[in-house]
Description:
The protein is an alpha+beta fold. It has two domains: about 1-210, Hypothetical Protein Pfu-838710-001, CATH 2.40.320; about 275-510, Alpha solenoid (CHAD domain), CATH 1.40.20. About 55% of the residues lie in helices and about 15% in strands. It is built from 17 helices and nine strands. The chain has a nine-stranded antiparallel sheet, sandwiched between helices. A hairpin with an 8-residue loop joins strand 6 (about 125-140) and strand 7 (about 145-155). Helix 9 (about 275-305) runs parallel beside helix 10. It starts with a helix and ends in a 6-residue tail after the last helix.
Amino acid sequence: MTEALLTEAPLTEAPLTEAPSIDARGNLTLELTLAPEDLPLLLRHPDCRAASRRRPVSCSVIWHDTPDGLLEQSGRALAQLNPGGAWQVTRLVPLPGEIAPPGAPAIVLAEDDGRATLEAPMREACQPVAAFDGRERRLSPPDADVTIRVLEGQLRAVTATALVCRVILSGPGCVGVAAALAGQMRLAAPATGLAAEALALAHRVTGRRPLGAPLLDEGLDVDRGFAVVVAHLAGVILHYAPHAQQDGGPEPVHQMRVALRRLRSAISLFRRAIACPELDAVTLQLKALGEVLGPPRDWDVFTGGTGRKVGLAFPEDPAVTLLLAAAERRRLAGYAALRAHLDSAAFRQIGIALAGLALERPWRHVLPEDAEEAQRVAELRHSELRAYAARALRRRFARVVAPGADLQGMALPALHDIRLQAKRLRYAAEFFSPLFPGRQTRRFLRRMGALQERLGLINDGVVAQALMAELPGRGPGRAYAAGVVRGFVAARTGGGLRKLDRTWQRFLRAEPFWD
């Protein structure tokens, strides 16, 4: 059946498009999720109380697919809006180069009679797989700057149901309104759209956002390129947040931290062109998130690496056992603090702020007061991304190789500085590598990754020594156990320094791919 449909009705890739986030009048639209239990809080809110008396209207959505899930596999969803109503095809996950962060409305590929855009064999094979039944409310007064629509009801599949509540805000000030509401109730940018949530309930393996570094297209300018990066990395952070909150192990926390570092690195890379107050506010929010992601990740690395090896080497030493137990308590405390933050208004507001940053691109309305500088910034924003990337990579590469060819005898603090510069270069190289395809780029990234890994292993030892000072407890037993850890780290660091020189020389021989 699958092969026949693919042969008779091949699925062509839909064109790159924009999320319908801003209309012709400049009104932004956000589609957020609200905890169903918090709907009464929204209805009682002073700005919504009078409007909430309006009578809600019944509404439904029925999603269709082939028995083999061909539409879902192609990254699209087919839905009928209300019985006998219009058919609509939407994108399940954004393509590389699309500005569609969590919180953006679904990208509509065909509407009114979207089902007719499918080839006949595909159209005839589609059948219902999931549905939404509920009510729509309009909460905002007619003269409000921001209108609010609420979809409340139940998602249904053959074997499962789930209560859902989506809040759609439209208007020039909807980011600020959403952030304020998120401080009072569990309103947030959703990790997935309603269609993907419905298909997941139906046990469909729905397409997910690309995870990892963003993929930039050569045709982008600087303005759009930064928006694509923000949208992509916001999606990565919100994808992993529920797994980190549900104790999904070290990996979700690690991936969230990597995505956060990439995003902060991107802000540094593009800041000359996109500086604005909204960016400054987001930068502070991201810094706060980094402060709660750091401790659990550092203790994960220690307890799963150096601490585990020390424990195996001294299995019956009571002082070492007590020290490792204290380290485990600190790790668990770090996770508890992280879960509290991920459940807080501050984290919900990060997702909303990133959605607004990517969709509104507020820097476009801000220019320096100096006319000459304003002209330079305006030209920079619309300059070719590839040329901007080459200049940025050239600057970062120069900072990494500044120490010269010989790292022998270099102190650990100096190596730490090289690691930070190398990490910034690696993030930039990951961002911009799709603009420079070829073997030379792949070789540089491999050697860049090897250098970063070698420097990271040395830094893990430095961090492990610093963590010992954070552990509570005193006395000769604790001092002895901490000394064991420091001795183990020193021995491993010595071996790592010898290997670092070879990795460094190989990196220096890698030709920069942007020149």
